[in-house]
UniProtKB/TrEMBL annotation:
Record protein name field: Protein SirB1 N-terminal domain-containing protein
Stored Pfam families: TPR_9, Transglut_core2
Protein SirB1 N-terminal domain residues: 34-184
Superkingdom: Bacteria
Similarity-based family: Belongs to the UPF0162 family.
InterPro entries cross-referenced by the UniProt entry: SirB1_N
Length: 270
């Protein structure tokens, strides 16, 4: 389980929180090595850019350094791979997804005293730059390109339907706890795709233990993982909890059928 409280995670850089949640899922995760690599990148960025007094130019320099010179980029070919969420693999391959690339970029931006924060936009993680003159810009951490609200509005319509509209809260700075819970959800989905059910179960346990205790949808998903691990009794308990908490959910009918099938299976002791 996590060594830090939700409040403590909120106070540390997002990337350090990501290291903590990943280590909670995978005890063999090389968090120390990742910290060394992050510090190396931060020192190189400081050496190259900290003498630039203009913050706008400093940000442009960081974007150029991160995406052009160092070669970090979004992974178009294996977007849903767990390698894009484990930071050691992201640093080795210089490929990731918005939340993993964005967390590293945020760490470097903070070291360069740049006003960059993270936004949990409904479609993906986005970087927000709040300049001292009141101007606000958005950056896609997948490729380092600036985003307009029109583009993000198109994303939203593609994600939620043609009548979806942008809301002000979609652009609020995200709480680290929300981003980390989302991080673990992405990690869990990747591990499930790869058939790594025991690792996915640890993801679910960390989410329930640290971020969303008692969340019926997370418990339903955990029941599915238990089912894949042939832990029928545990799966039934999680499915029954979800049905009790969300009786009107359209998946309850299917879950009831699965419960009937699981109750007919012999008890397996693990």
């Amino acid at each position: 389980m996590l060594r830090f409280t939700e409040q403590e995670l909120e106070q540390m850089p997002l990337v350090e929180g990501a290291l903590e949640v990943t280590a909670a899922v995978d005890p063999a995760f090389p968090a120390g090595w990742v910290k060394v690599q992050l510090e190396r990148l931060a020192q190189e960025a400081e050496h190259s850019l900290m003498d630039e007094p203009n913050a706008h130019l400093r940000l442009e320099g960081l974007i150029r350094l991160f995406y052009r010179e160092w070669g970090f980029s979004g992974d178009h070919e294996q977007y849903f791979s767990s390698e894009n969420i484990y930071l050691d693999k992201v640093l080795e391959r210089k490929k990731g997804i918005p939340v993993s690339l964005g967390a590293i970029f945020l760490y470097l931006a903070d070291r360069l005293e740049l006003p960059v924060s993270g936004v949990g936009f409904p479609t993906q993680f986005v970087l927000k730059v709040e300049w001292f003159d009141g101007e606000t810009q958005f950056i896609n951490p997948f490729d380092g390109e600036y985003l307009s609200k029109q583009v993000m509005g198109a994303w939203l319509k593609g994600h939620r339907g043609p009548f979806s509209e942008l809301r002000n809260e979609y652009f609020d700075t995200a709480e680290h706890s929300d981003v980390l819970a989302r991080w673990l959800t992405v990690m869990k989905s990747a591990l499930l795709r790869e058939g790594l059910f025991a690792d996915a179960l640890r993801c679910s346990d960390v989410v329930l233990g640290a971020f969303r205790p008692g969340d019926p949808h997370e418990i339903r998903d955990r029941g599915y993982i238990y089912q894949q691990l042939d832990c029928s009794h545990a799966a039934v308990m999680d499915f029954e909890y979800f049905i009790e908490q969300c009786p009107e959910d359209p998946t309850t009918k299917l879950l009831k059928l699965q419960i009937e099938e699981l109750n007919q299976e012999p008890l397996v002791l693990h």
